[in-house]
Request: fold
Amino acid sequence: MGSKSVRFRCHSCGHCCTDVICLPTPWDIVRMVRDIRVDPKKFLDFIKPDEITEVEEDDPTWIKVRNQKYLMGLKRGAKGCFFLDKKDRTCTIYDSRPLLCRLYPFCHEETRDGKHLGFSLHKDVGCPRHRDGVVSVEPLKALLDEEEEHRRDYRDLVEVFNRREYPGKSPKDFISLFVEIQSKTKTPKTAKA
Reply:
């Protein structure tokens, strides 16, 4: 674990873009749409509980529609993420990618009472975790803080959406809710990593 830096360098193996499901926040989506000008309904998917095991059943970001639960994620095909270039295997929206993509494969370490200790590399992921580079913890912490703030907003939006009941309600309606609300506000600047 590093309190100032973590030994890591990405070798572009593609694991994060092929084997990991990305669950962006609404702020990620608004930023991506503004940057790449693509309708979010083209690149978002709604994942059912049997399609993802890493998210707790009581996670507050489950979208509920007619007694079914969904998580908002980036669309994936047989060869990986919607934004993965199929020829050169690189991210086509690298500078606009979601915060979770920017934080992967780093794991936040904290004390039992929730105080920040530093970062390490996730141990139970398929990333080869090459340690031939050095990544500063300071920008990772800034990304984590921003991501946690966005998650709070996300939980609030999901709560509003889940309370609404109307004929024909669909998980995709959630996109309209946050695009409408967040397009009226200024998108926060994203820390770089």
Remarks:
- The chain is about 30% helix and 20% strand.
- The two ends are 18 Å apart (CA to CA).
- The helical segments are 15-18, 26-36, 40-43, 99-103, 137-163, 173-183.
